[in-house]
Amino acid sequence: MPRKKRSLAGVVRAAEEVLRKNRVDHVFVGAVSVIVFGEPRTTRDVDVLARIPESKAGRIALDFRRRGFFASEYDLSSAIRERAHCSIEDRRGPLRIDLAPASDPTARRALRTRAAVRWRGITIPVSAPEHTVVMKLKFGSPQDVEDALGILAEQGNRLDFAGMWAFARSQRVATGLEMLLQRVKAQTKD
Question: Could you say which architecture CATH assigns to the domain 1-127?
Answer without folding.
Answer: 2-Layer Sandwich (3.30)
